[in-house]
Amino acid sequence: MTTTTQTAFSRFIADANAKAFDKTHRKTIRHNMGKYDTAVENGLHQFSNHSLAKERASFFKAKAINQLPELLEQFEENITKNGAHVLWARDAKEALKLVTEIMDERMATTVVKSKSMTTEELDLNEYFEHKGLEAIETDLGEFIVQMAGQKPYHIVTPCMHMSKADIAKLFHEKLNIPLTDNAEELVAVARHILREKYTTADVGITGANFLIADTGSIAITENEGNARLSVTFPKTHIVIAGIEKVLPNLRHLHTIWPLLATHGTGQQVTVYNTIISGPRSRNEYDGPSEMFVVLIDNGRTNLLADPEKREALKCIRCGACLNACPVYRNIGGHSYGTTYQGPIGSVITPHFKGMEEFKHLSYASSLCGACSEVCPVKIDLSKLLLLNRKQAVESGQVPASERTVIKLWAFAMQHKALVNFPGAALKNWAAHQFLKETWSKNRTDITFAKQSFTALWKSRRKHKS
């Protein structure tokens, strides 16, 4: 096991333990999750056949993933005809280099960014800060966590872990405004700051919820209008998107957009749904004069090359699996130490960032199946978590101690005399010694019965006879 692996794993264990026993954190998360659960239950009423909608969305996304190379070429051809420039990046380093070149050529120093998990993959804000460039998040939740010096806590709701009092205190400390518990006043302060940034920024950066191949368009879903403003005012628009976001045609949004809205926030339709097919044309009065689309691999083709696991690329980033996961609901998003948290993050991160370093995430699951059940595109996340575990074992990335324990357990299970060994006290002592730093640290000690099942059965039959 490498030092990096030890660091990622040990940090996860330490952070997970801290959050699991933080009563204030758990109270905040349960409150916010409770509101989400209620909203989704109401939002699902819009579907006359919810199961059929999921089946169709799953089929559309699976078809797109299986035709990914052809659809990406079609997207590039069509959006290029619309006046945009398409750039390809194999990894985060290449993507950052391409974005930097665009910025340098235009002597740009200021950026407004709409919410984008793909840019979080690149650590784009930290990179810009290192380069002496100003990049400000315009989504309110992202704006808050950026101000707090944190990463997004949740794919959809970046500051879910913060209460209104926490946010008020942050605004008071960072923006020097009076303490207030009035949410409208806090939003007004953020709006005042951000609107000035929109009108003065050199570049606007967005992600893309979907890439539409047949029209050469990007589709963006949001609730605040910040992505539209980030595109409208700056002269240059840079889109940063993963290659798996492509859809064959515009009609598929009719099915997928309502599912994304309901499973993401409980809405029937997200407030702002925007389709952008290129930079401003001659007869248009607003919008960017140039548009670049940076398409990122960054490990996605690793999944694409694996027929058993490629369905993970169907994910539409609704966050439903996080909200359903009992592990996430107890340890929170920051414990994962990754861009994508919860079940979907545990599935894709080992392929995006390395199985050796992040294989432990695939064990951060109870395998209850709730994530698979709620997924709007029917990704079998429980199965994929097990396949990740299998890959880790078969590639020899499991510690020798774990392999030894499994071999001993298998040997004992195959030899009835060992299972029925009558020394319960000895078994209990051995289990306590072996598990005191793992299982028994936060749980009651495992206790073996004084008599084995075989002994109890024999005693029962003897008593009856």
Task: Chart the SSEs and their pairings.
Layout: H1 3-20, H2 23-43, H3 50-66, H4 68-81, E1 85-89, H5 92-105, E2 110-113, H6 117-121, H7 124-130, E3 134-137, H8 140-147, H9 164-175, H10 183-200, E4 203-206, E5 210-212, E6 217-222, H11 226-232, E7 236-242, E8 246-247, H12 253-265, E9 272-276, E10 290-296, H13 300-304, H14 320-324, H15 328-331, H16 342-353, H17 355-358, H18 370-374, H19 381-394, H20 400-413, H21 416-419, H22 424-435, H23 439-442, H24 453-464
Parallel strand pairs: 1-10, 2-3, 2-4, 4-7, 5-8, 7-10
Antiparallel strand pairs: 5-6, 6-9
Structural notes for this entry:
With 465 residues, the chain is of the alpha/beta class. The protein has three domains: 1-46 and 309-398, Fumarate Reductase Iron-sulfur Protein, Chain B, domain 2 (Orthogonal Bundle); 51-298, Rossmann fold, CATH 3.40.50; 400-464, no CATH class. The protein contains 24 helices and ten strands. It has helices spanning 3-20, 23-43, 50-66, 68-81, 92-105, 117-121, 124-130, 140-147, 164-175, 183-200, 226-232, 253-265, 300-304, 320-324, 328-331, 342-353, 355-358, 370-374, 381-394, 400-413, 416-419, 424-435, 439-442, 453-464; strands at 85-89, 110-113, 134-137, 203-206, 210-212, 217-222, 236-242, 246-247, 272-276, 290-296. The chain has a six-stranded parallel sheet, sandwiched between helices. Strands 8-5-6-9 form a four-stranded mixed sheet. β5 and β6 form a beta hairpin. α2 (23-43) packs antiparallel against α12 and α16 (342-353) runs parallel beside α19 (381-394). The termini are far apart. 38% of the residues are buried.
